[in-house]
# Entry
Amino acid sequence: MFRDIFQGFVKLHILYHAANEPVFGLELMVELERHGYRLSPGTLYPLLHSLEKEGYLICDKQTVNGKVRKYYTATRKGVQLLARGRQKADELLNEISPKE
# Structure
C-alpha cells in the first residue's frame, strides 16, 4: 500500500517538473532525492515510460556530449492530471491536518 501512495507522489513530482521545463532521468533522480525520494533507475525509468505510454509525457531525444539523452515534457493531458492531483492533494491535506 505504501508503495502505491509513494509512486503517486513521485508521479506528481515528475509531472510538476516536466510541466515547468523538459527534464531527464538523472536530473529527476537528484531533484526527487531533495524531497526525500531515493529512486533507483530501475524504479524511475519504468515510471517515466508508463507516464509517456499513458500520454502524460512526451519524450524528445537529444545528443549531449556525444550521448543520447531523453528529455521528458508534460503534455496537455499531463498538465491537466497535475492540476487534478494538486486539487486532490489540497483536499486531502485539509482533511487530515490537525485542527486547532
User: Anything to note?
Assistant: The longest helix spans residues 76-96. The radius of gyration is 15 Å. DSSP finds four helices and two strands in the chain.
